[in-house]
Design brief:
2 copies of one chain form a homodimer.
Chain A: E1 5-8, E2 19-26, E3 32-39, E4 44-50, E5 53-60, E6 63-67, E7 71-72, E8 75-89, E9 99-112, E10 119-127, E11 130-137, E12 145-151, E13 154-156, E14 162-165, E15 178-181, H1 187-192, E16 207-209, E17 212-215, E18 221-227, E19 235-240, E20 245-250, E21 259-262, E22 265-266, E23 269-275, H2 278-283, H3 286-289, E24 305-310, H4 312-315, H5 332-344, E25 349-352, H6 382-391, E26 395-401, H7 406-422, E27 427-431, H8 446-461, E28 465-468, E29 484-487, H9 507-510, H10 547-556, E30 561-563, H11 568-572, H12 575-583, E31 588-597, E32 601-608, E33 614-620, E34 625-630, E35 640-647, E36 660-667, E37 672-677, E38 682-689
Helix pairs in contact in A: 5-6, 7-8, 10-12
Chain lengths: 692, 692
């Protein structure tokens, strides 16, 4: 118990609430310091410092049950345990081939003091880049089933930080990020500015979602989030603007309860990620480390992959999901064209949306029986296309839009997965557009959290990979369920066609600091046709990016599942630039963030899995910028050929977005590149080791 | 349009609300008269008379939508259609081998007047014993999806009738019947007196359930109920005691809505059953006639049947459902004993409750994942017992207790039914003891109504017969789904072991006038061990019946599925009386109620299917009575042997319940029997045609 200093202060002071005991744990490198203190009344507070700077000042720990009706806010400490863990593990796929898990742990075993005798353990893990803690309820005589009314955990901050936030919401995480001081958070106003989000449930003007990114006046980057969200509702945070303290607000169920739990039970980890370097935030593996290891014994069937899809053409109004319109996109001929294109350029999959009957009446009416997930439209010859795709070495990716009717999906689920197996499909994109059925449940409540997990488990049992759209935000569960390749769970590229706010150039510089900290996002980059033309009368918004930036996103928006989102005919126009998408890998041995600032820019370099090749992506917001990159990550003494896809000198996301330059040159670890990024621009570089 | 008299009154009166138009329809025999009137403001009212006596005085028709937000209470009448139907149809099984469906129909096609242009049709069917009407929404330009906020249908009665009621409740129909004046209805007090009902949701002191039986001061028997409850919540009735008017109150969902509908849509039939003879109420087929014909093309696999079961021994504490107690009843040896007993006496089935793992923690905690319906307890050798039962010519009846966790049941349902087929079972008893999951839904709401129907359809697809416990009350759907043999949906025999109110002697004289009007009940009669003994420490209540009455219930409580509820060892003590249960059929060519008075007594006689044998059952409440029965239903000129199972002269449900006499005599159609029923007693008679 070397690293825990127990201070018994017991000050003979008029104020009984002064700290009585304090437990202090520092991280392995001593960068992060956790202090847990107990007041005389038994209440517990935790505080976190980073390099001696306060990050979290004393903040309450506790929970409130509705059944039994007990508030767990004052405790007797029955034991204090500690350990140090230092291990390395290998993910099935990821940004790096191995991950170090190094922390010191403090475990407080507590008895609730008011007479309930309920036992709870709070486990803290202190990493060099942050802290995670959770509540655990062991099996015990005085507690079996219980219902959670509220979690009382607080996060008291040191000041009016700059923050990158979206409204707290029970149903949607598809908001554009707002950048403001904490004191300027206004979730209600932000929500009313978002007419394009299908289902919104904002509940408090001061509420925000996690992952929440902040930057303090003294230069610290702080992210609040959670890890391993299992059998529990998602956490929102409600700000007390007087003292800059966030309190957890869990997503309720139809009855107003927060969670139904049974011992042994545990909450997700509450996480505080901290650094004085923004790049460390992007490179952190803390959330993954706080998740359980993979439950899939033989993951050999799980393959990171790239795909194209019958999808964007519906968004821009060229085709439709439904058949009745007369413009049905998922018809045999059109899908055959996509399969041909995928095969020609080595894509693994072709997503086909709108393949199944039901789209004529699928949305907006809380309708329960919409799709059956096994009945194709009459113009979609699935037998023929299955055989054709197989012959072409491509797999069709299944689409299961539930329209939020989850009871219906659960009824069809097993038949639907068997249907996939029968048709040679091993990846599914799920969707939850609409109000949830069971009615009264929310996308981010405990029941739906359990549903998403059930889908991950059930698909795994059929050896199916999963890409969930409109689910709860990611919390690192792709470690435990590596078949769950990616989720949407944020505003993705589809909002490039959304009306009012759309997709700003800065959005992609914020997502890696927020949403992506929880796990891969199916952002669907790769749009090449960026301005509107006369055939796109349905479009209300254009793509606010340069073409070169679209390439860079394949590096800066990490995912083992990457779409090339645009239409084949648009790629045909720029096949030289498209080559980067053809070449870019989706699995990596190493990844390093070279520079970054949320809301401004990001430059990341990654090393291809099992190869000596590197790929660099650099993006900027609406402002142009010049990069100086030293390629010192390359092996010294070796030569490489670099293929540089960059904005041309005339490029600008507003006036000239499709103007790019491709340059080829030999580089070494000593090369310094000067790269100019246009307004809303980016740069992608492929660096291939040359033979000796 | 012969039988409809249209009266345009348009009185030049200060009161604009006076009737403008009246449509009058009389029943085929003219016993029932329906009048539908429209006031100047467009509102519609209906009234019903029986043999010139008012039954329903002008009562409002209408509905209120929450989306679109329209109240449908004033209409323009666009067409008036009528027809007469006179047909005879044959049920798959039933109380009679054929049923006459004879009514006159009035169909008003209406346009809502406030500007919505919503079209609704109200269809009235006028039978000789009552009226049914429903609202129908055809496909139309101005209405597709809609959400029902309330149904506004009223039933205005003529006075402070005597009524047999149970509290209006969203979740339970297992109340003991109260007998009072309408003005004395007090649902809240009645509910608080029922500690033995697992889940109660009483919502209004003046609310009652249907079927609601009433008797007017002028001698009319009136029953309010509904028929063909499909895709709609159950109807409760809330009384305005000032004017004795009931208004419908539909069971809400988790969001507070009543129903989600899409055109074409229709409500259940609202039914008013009327007679001046109580016996006509019991013989009415109106509710069956208002249901759709069978959807099962080949019903040859559906078999009315008798069964015994491992069930009552758990209720009385001899055994348990769970294994951990050490008294697990559903063990291989014990079930083998039941199979032997069933085989010896020709029973079709053996119900086995507590066969599957999960009973150690199944109730009371709104727990979602309780049972999987396919995993037997370790001491239950299902392979062996399946083979053993087959060899003995008996089938095991499956038990699916869901504990109210319906999302879980729906996930397992198909596997569970396949498991039944794989184990030679073709009948299932379902159970819904507990608060419903999806949380916030109720047993009697639209979502659950759809679930029960889904179970009926899904079991039918596996050729499985259904016996639903704790479902919504029956509304005649056994015509449409004849595999749905019976439901509980009321206080059954199990309450003979319930603490406070238990099961009164009069309860079984009320059930046929209330709950059973909707369809067969799995009441589980046949208890022979009626007083407590020293081994029954768990019991808090004894059986309030004589043994002879237990036999009579097989006739008076019609069901194609009848249990012999007591333990084999209790039947062994009274094998001579048990012979009646062995002999009594469960399917009939004819049935006639000879006499009856709700709350007092019932005598019914039935003719065995395809035979010349008759069976008579007579029961009384807590008061003894003398019956004089003329056997004029027998074929004239033929001799019969009658086996009379009656209370002995010393019998009394309280002091001497197991005292009975069995008498054998030759009878003819001219025979007059004098039968004495003890307090809480009854009589059962088997009458076999003798050879010429």
């Amino acid at each position: 118990m070397k690293f825990i200093a127990v201070l018994t202060l017991l000050l003979l002071n008029a104020c009984f609430l002064f700290a009585q005991k304090t437990f202090t744990v520092s991280s392995p490198s001593s960068s992060v310091l956790l202090q847990v203190s107990q007041k005389v009344d038994g209440s517990l507070y935790y505080a976190v410092k980073f390099k001696r700077k306060n990050v979290i000042i004393p903040s309450m720990l506790g929970l409130k049950f509705s059944n039994p009706a007990v508030t767990l806010s004052a405790f007797q400490i029955t034991s204090v345990d500690s350990l140090t863990k230092n291990e390395t593990w290998k993910p099935v796929w990821g940004e790096t081939s191995s991950i170090r898990n190094h922390y010191k742990e403090l475990k407080l075993t507590l008895i609730e003091k008011s007479g309930s005798d309920i036992q709870v353990t709070i486990t803290f893990r202190v990493f060099n880049d942050g802290v995670g803690f959770r509540y655990e309820f062991p099996q015990q005589p005085n507690l079996n089933h219980f219902i959670l009314a509220d979690e009382l955990t607080q996060f008291a901050l040191t000041g009016d930080h700059k923050t990158f936030w979206i409204p707290g919401d029970y149903d949607s995480n598809e908001y554009l990020y707002n950048t403001s001081r904490l004191s300027e958070i206004d979730a209600l106003t932000a929500s009313t500015q978002e007419p394009d989000i299908a289902v919104k449930s904002v509940f408090d003007a001061n509420a925000v979602q996690t992952p929440l990114m902040m930057k303090s006046a003294d230069g610290l980057y702080i992210s609040l989030h959670e890890a391993a969200l299992i059998n529990y509702p998602a956490m929102n945070l409600v700000l007390d603007k007087k003292n800059f303290t966030f309190t957890t607000h869990l997503v309720p169920d139809a009855a107003g309860n927060k969670a139904y739990l049974q011992t042994p039970a545990r909450t997700p980890w509450r996480t505080i990620l901290i650094s004085d370097k923004a790049t460390d935030i992007l490179d952190s593996k803390m959330i993954l480390n706080l998740n359980d290891p993979s439950v899939i014994d033989d993951p050999s069937w799980i393959k990171p992959q790239k795909f194209i899809g019958v999808w964007w053409e519906m968004h821009i109004g060229k085709g439709t999901w439904d058949l009745a319109s007369g413009k049905h996109a998922a018809n045999t001929e059109n899908v055959k064209r996509y399969i041909d294109f995928a095969s020609r350029f080595g894509f693994d999959g072709v997503l086909v949306e709108g393949w199944n009957v039901g789209w004529e009446d699928w949305f907006g009416n809380w309708k329960e029986n919409v799709f059956d997930f096994i009945t194709p439209y009459s113009d979609y010859d699935i037998q023929y296309l299955t055989a054709y795709a197989k012959q072409k070495g491509v797999r069709i990716i299944m689409h299961h839009e539930t329209s939020g009717s989850v009871t219906n999906y659960e009824r069809w689920m097993e038949k639907a997965y068997q249907y996939m197996v029968d048709h040679d499909m091993n990846a599914v994109k799920t969707g939850y557009v609409g109000k949830i059925i069971p009615r009264g449940e929310h996308h981010d409540g405990q029941w739906m959290v359990n549903h998403y997990q059930r889908v991950a488990e059930k698909t795994a049992s059929y050896k199916i990979m999963l890409d969930a759209h409109e689910p709860v935000r990611s919390t690192g569960l792709h470690r435990t369920y590596p078949n769950w390749l990616a989720s949407e769970a944020a505003r993705g590229s589809e909002f490039n066609n959304a009306g009012k706010l759309g997709m700003t150039p800065e959005h992609t510089t914020i997502l890696p600091f927020t949403r992506l900290l929880g796990g891969p996002m199916d952002f669907t980059p790769g749009l090449f046709h960026l301005q509107l033309n006369q055939f796109e009368k349905n479009r209300t918004q254009r793509v606010r990016s340069t073409l070169a930036k679209q390439l860079a996103l394949y590096i800066t928006m990490y995912s083992p599942l990457q779409m090339a989102a645009d239409l084949p005919e648009n790629y045909e126009k720029y096949l030289d630039a498209f080559q980067f998408i053809v070449d870019v890998p989706v699995d990596w041995d190493d990844s390093r963030t070279l520079e970054g600032e949320p809301g401004d820019f990001i430059t990341i370099v990654r090393k291809a899995k099992g190869k000596d090749d590197w790929y660099l992506g650099a993006i900027t917001d609406e402002n142009s910028r010049s990069l100086k990159i030293t390629l010192d990550f390359l092996e010294t003494g070796r030569k490489y050929e670099a293929f540089i896809y960059r904005d041309s000198e005339k490029a600008d996301w507003e006036t000239n977005p499709e103007s790019y330059t491709i340059e080829k040159r030999v580089v070494t670890s000593k090369t310094k590149l000067n790269i100019w990024l246009a307004n809303g621009g980016g740069c992608a570089i492929r660096i291939i080791m040359l033979p000796k």
